[in-house]
Amino acid sequence: MMRLLLQILRNNSSLKSELNGGTKASALPKLFSRWLHAPTQPPSFGIAFDIDGVLLRGETSTGGSPQALRRLYYHSANSCSISALKVPYVFLTNGGGVPESERAKELSKQLGVDILPLQVIQGHTPFRELVKRYEDDLIVAVGKGEPGRVMSEYGFKNVLSIDDYASCFPNIDPLAQYKKWTKMQPTDREMALRTDPCSQRVQAVFIVSDPVDWSRDIQVLCDILRTGGLPGQEIAHQPPLFFANDDIAYQALFPAERLGMGAFRIALESIFNRIHTNNMEYTSYGKPNPFVFKNAENVLLQVLQSAYNNIQSSGEMQPFKRLYMIGDNPSVDINGAKQAGHPWVSILTRTGVFKGIGNHADYPADLVVNSVEEAVDYILRKEHTS
Ligand code: G3P
Ligand code: MG
């Protein structure tokens, strides 16, 4: 029997190299199972899932998302892992606050499938590209979760979260004593003192995730931005300011949408422009920027290669004919997919920001469905993949 298996595997050109490279007998069952799952041709389409309002509301799954994702794996597989992935997909969210590796673990638990860090594209993921520019400079990272750790893991060497930064300036927040929830000790005081932020200029500010304490953050950011990065000092040139997204609102657990990073940006900008001579300068990342979709396309190709590495090695990888963006926010997800153009197809769900009956008037999607489960069902039928 084993000889027969080996004969079949050797006759399959895509697995030949692996066997010739010296596959151990113990690895054969796994190898054979991957060969059984994989079709001769990889799919010519892929999917990008928005998270908030499509797959999750708060921490809870919505719209039948676990079932929808399971349909993207081979039924015969024991687990929903990359080796059993039938349809390449990524998560394309404007959210964040934790490193992609950690978010992949959280999503795997919440959605019941094995997700690779590669499949997680967050609003702040493109900040990685700025490491060369600010690698050793003092930068401040703002937002919920662990914005400092996110930036350190990207390679920024001299980063402080706004919590740690603010704690180095006594009385910078006159309302601190009334904030019963705040910790009196900085989370990483040692690091804060080592970098001596009171004498070093902040070279750039990154809004990594939704800011938590708007009053303190607006105050401290106005201080940093107006003084060229040295709160309490004279007015100087504004250091660069980057936002991970510009979402005015997003869908969480509460029935009506919640204010997002774009709302915080408007609040900060309105105040800054009122108290400062020059207008606030900033750059926003995230959807709907078309470059986010271009990057997602490249990542989807990498996911396809990981899932179908046997086919890729024989040089048969083709560009995608269609990429589906499933989102809940017309001005962000649908607008972004439209701007990105071919091969993007937009699908709008009614589980989040959009709750209309027909299509959206200003940013009509190619298809409107009730849930992500319906969207995946449509895609698999259209692509003749079941
Ligand atoms: O804070 C999260 C929010 O701005 C959007 O998340 O997954 O809907 O792009 P998402
Ligand atoms: Mg959303």
TrEMBL record:
The protein, known as: Mitochondrial hydrolase YKR070W-like isoform X1
Higher taxonomy: Eukaryota, Viridiplantae, Streptophyta, Embryophyta, Tracheophyta
Organism: Coffea arabica
Superkingdom assignment: Eukaryota
Record Gene3D superfamilies: HAD superfamily/HAD-like
Alphabetized InterPro entries for the sequence: CDP-alcohol_PTase-I (IPR050324), HAD-like_sf (IPR036412), HAD-SF_hydro_IIA (IPR006357), HAD-SF_hydro_IIA_CECR5 (IPR006353), HAD_sf (IPR023214)
NCBIfam families, per database record: CECR5, HAD-SF-IIA
GO biological process annotation, one example: glycerophospholipid biosynthetic process
Example of a GO cellular component annotation carried by this entry: mitochondrion
Pfam families: Hydrolase_6, Hydrolase_like
